[in-house]
Design brief:
Elements lengths: L1 E5 L14 E5 L14 E4 L4 H10 L5 E4 L5 H4 L8 E3 L6 H16 L2 H9 L25 E5 L3 H12 L3 E5 L4 E3 L2 E4 L4 H4 L5 E4 L13 H6 L5 E4 L8 H9 L5 E4 L19 E3 L11 H14 L10
Parallel strand pairs: 1-2, 1-3, 3-4, 4-5, 6-7, 6-10, 7-9, 10-11, 11-12, 12-13
Antiparallel strand pairs: 8-9
Helix pairs in contact: 3-5
């Protein structure tokens, strides 16, 4: 079985079985003709055009493994229905958790304003010295209500850390219940939790059903002191509505690791908004445990068993 491996990620620990032959390819170039007979394609950071080309030319493909948690780019490429697509769910839980926590704490401690003051050589005394433990703004995770929108494996890693720092966490997912000690509600109950939310963290995937899920209506239900943090996908946010809410004082601020257009255009008003924190899609970027996932799914494919992280389509 021919397996194509992306050359832009370290897979040196991947020891393929004797039944498989691995070949490295460049993700920014078409798959070479001599490898058009591949049965397995592993994807990491491939541009849309390259995946569309692979979908059209790799006629013998049986399985595509993306190392990204979100499979939206692969799904949009047009691979035939008989090709199994599996996601990198679970590979980014730790790294995205770390980055999300950094964004949340940066918002609480106003690092965005402190950095602006530092650049201007101004001692921001109003942000230092004696400070209230709690006031009408989000300043601490202690007793804060944090809502995680899209409660999957990343949220399962993040929630206990937020709880350990004193936050009360509520999850939002398709199915209600209690997971990892966290109360999880459905979208139907989502509007009832927003008015008491101090931080809304979105880990939503990109899909037609989630496009601009954060809109003016959601923003209006949040308290004026609340912050919005997005480490999911940029397409899930109506950026104009978000910016309007912040500028009108109806929302305290936003920390965005993803934007609808990436890279964010230089002319975007998000760059200059004091209460917007931006990072360049940096939360993941390091698929921890990728070799083990590839080997597990390869064995399942060869043995005719269900693969892990199969994406419904």
């Amino acid at each position: 079985m021919k397996v194509l491996l992306p050359g832009n990620v370290d897979l040196s620990d991947l020891a393929l079985p004797s039944t498989a032959a691995g070949f490295t390819y460049a993700v920014d170039q078409p798959v070479p003709d001599e490898h058009a007979d591949a049965e397995v394609l592993v994807v990491w950071g491939n541009p849309e055009w390259q995946l569309r080309d692979a979908a059209a030319r790799l006629k013998g493909l049986r399985w595509v493994q993306t190392l990204a948690a979100g499979p939206d780019v692969v799904l949009a490429a047009g691979f035939p229905a008989q090709v199994v697509v599996t996601s990198g769910r679970g590979l980014h839980d730790v790294t995205v958790t770390e980055h999300t926590l950094a964004l949340v704490l940066a918002a609480a401690r106003r690092l965005n304003l402190l950095i602006r003051a530092q650049i201007g050589h101004r001692w921001a005394g109003e942000l230092g010295g004696n400070q209230p433990v709690r006031d009408q703004s989000f300043r601490t995770l202690r007793d804060a209500h944090v809502v995680i929108w899209g409660f999957g494996s990343i949220a399962a890693t993040l929630a206990p850390i937020l709880t350990a720092l004193g936050a009360r966490v509520t999850g939002v997912a398709r199915t209600a219940g209690t997971r990892h000690g966290v109360t999880v509600v459905t979208e139907a109950d989502f509007p009832t939790v927003l008015p008491t939310t101090d931080v809304l963290i979105s880990i939503l995937p990109a899909a037609p059903s989630t496009r601009h899920a954060f809109d003016a209506e959601v923003a209006a239900l949040l308290p004026a002191h609340a912050w919005f943090v997005n480490v999911g996908r940029g397409a899930t946010v109506d950026e104009a509505a978000l910016l309007a809410a912040i500028r009108a004082g109806r929302l305290a601020g936003a920390a965005l690791d993803v934007t609808e257009t990436e890279p964010l255009p230089p002319g975007s008003p998000l760059w200059d908004e004091p209460n917007v924190i931006l990072s360049p899609h940096a939360a993941g970027g390091r698929p921890i445990g990728a070799p083990a996932l590839i080997l597990e799914n390869l064995a399942a494919l060869e043995e005719g068993r269900p693969l892990r992280n199969v994406v419904e389509r």
